[in-house]
Sequence to fold (354 residues):
Amino acid sequence: MTHLREMAAPLPKTMKAAVLVAPEQFELREVPLPVPGPDDVLIKVKRCGLCGTDMHIYHGKYSSDRLPLIPGHEFSGHIAALGDAVTGLALGQGVTADINVGCGRCFYCRKNEVMNCPTMVQIGIHVDGGLAEYVRVPASHIVPVARDTAIELAALTEPVSCIVRAVRRSRLQLGESVLILGAGPIGNLHLQVARQAGAAPIIVSDPNPERAAWAKASGADYVVSDASTLADVVEKATQGRGADLVIESVGLTALYEQAFDLVRPGGRVLAFGLCDQGAHAHYAPFKVVLKELGLQGSVAGMGDDMHDAMTLIAHDRVDLDAFVETVYPLERIAEAMAAFIADKRINKVQIAVG
Fold:
């Protein structure tokens, strides 16, 4: 039997959780409390964000075989219990978590390519996550919240880590030009981290005037809301070459195809936006070969990406105020998801759990 170290107040036997029982059908349920193993941590969740992946899960386009499921992978809170083999962590400590859990031994795990591990599962996507009062996490995947960092900002470590990894995989260099297709929340984070990495100039394209204005306020050098002018803007901003790096952050095949028209010879396209499964974009291999174009995919932050994202947040290298403006209680999860899907003025929804 596992022995737990837990807070002075005894842990409850059950907890409230938002359970997605079928596509587009949430139920607020009282469910058994997760039981941590000897190497696990039990987190009392404070905040949990919703993101585009949650939309895909909600609509049944992703992980539908895992339902019923407690979603939620952008969470933060405080340690409520520790397995008896856990060291280096403390009860009551503020934490978030790397949600990508692999075997830890295979070729891919050794290279921090955990998403390719044959046994990989993601907390809140394949197994129960943070839209509940408590969530169980392997102690090895805990990311401590930096001192003086607000717990609601700590819940944004996971999405920021995805951008950190994308910048690394794109091989972005100082002074390189970047075109970001899409100025939603993810596009805005790409913009902010690209600025920190020294990209110049940065061009952002989005037909939504409010999101275009947000990109300008966040430091974009050029913002385009009229798609018919984008090619001219890119040409003028890059001395006629095209962008060194084009980032697709929306998940539309038409934008992926456009990316190959706007990248310079010898440049790279970063595939980040998640299209519907089975969608296909077309490109000309002849052009890719002759112009020596590169294509790089990137999907999620893991390992050091999470810890480095926390460092960026702790030192105010990313402005996350717009991501914590809209907060719903757990009891209103269905309403929160509906608003997040329908209202494009909402940049991010966070669920206040504890």
Notes: The chain has a mean pLDDT of 95. Residues 4-156+320-352 form a domain with the Quinone Oxidoreductase; Chain A, domain 1 fold (CATH 3.90.180.10).
